[in-house]
Amino acid sequence: MSTDKIISLLPSATEIICALGLEDNLVGRSHECDYPESVKQLPICTEANFPDGLSSADIDVKVKEILADALSVYTVKREQIKQLAPDVVITQDQCEVCAVSLTDVELALDNYLDKKARIISLRPNSVEDIFNDIITIANALNVPQAGADLVELLNERVDIIKHKLKFADSKPTVACIEWLEPMMISGNWVPGLVSIAGGTPVLAQDGKHSPYVSWDEIRAQNPDIIIVMPCGFSIERSLKEIDILMQLPGFADMKAVKNNQLYIADGNQYFNRPGPRIVDSIEILTEIIRPKQFAFGYEGEGWIKFGV
Hints:
Helices cover 38% and strands 15% of the residues. It is α/β, with parallel strands linked by helices.
C-alpha cells in the first residue's frame, strides 16, 4: 500500500484515487473536487480567478480575457500546499479552462516546497486514455493490482453494453452540447461514449477537442437526439440557461424537439470528468438513446427529459 501523501488538483483524479482505495492518502484537493462526499473536508489548494454565478457568455468572455493577458484561470495556493508537504501532486495538461494546468502547478511549486514532490499530469482524450490514466496513477502510487482490477471492472460494464447493442440495426444521430453561449459540441471522449451507447455523434470527433459550432450547423444536421451537458454545470444550472437554446431560430422545428428527444445531463458530475464514472456516463447515454434496452436508474439524478 502506498504511503505517499497526495494532493489532487483534478476532480477526476480524486475519484480515481478513491476508487483505488487510497482516499486516506489524500491531504488536499482542488476547489472543484467534490466526489465522493467525504473529500469535501480536505484542505482546498486552488481557486478560480472569476466569480461564481456568471452566465455562459460571461464565463466565456472572462476566461478569454484572462488567457489573452497570459494569466491563469486558476490560482494555486502555494502556502497551503507547502504546509501539506505532499509527495505527489496530480494535475492535467489538456485544458487551461477546465482545471489547474501543469504549467500553473510547475510555476507555483518550482523550488518552493521543502521537499521535491512528484507531479503526475494527465491528458485523456478518449475512453482508452481514461482507463490508461487509471493504470498510470495506480502504478505511480504502488498499487498496480488495484488499477488493473478497477479497469477490468469498468471494461466489463462497457462490454455488457456493447454485447447488448451488437446487432442494433439503427444508430440515431446525437448532438451533445458542451456550451450554450457560444455554442460548442462535446468532443474528446464524448463522441466515443455516444458510439458505445448506440448512437452516432455529430459535429465532433472522438479524441479531438470540443469544437465551436454555429446553430446553423446543428440545424443542418437536424439530429435525432439533443443532449445539453455544459462543462461544469449541474442539471439545475443548465436549466437556468436552457432559454438560450429554445430562443434560437428554428428550434421548435428540430426533429429532436418535435419528437420529444431533448435532454439535459449533469455535465459536471459525469461527462466532464474523465475518471471511473465515465462508465456511468455511458450508461446514462444508453438510457437516453436506447430506453427499451437499458434502465440503470440515473434518470432524475444524472439526466432528465426536457419537455418543450
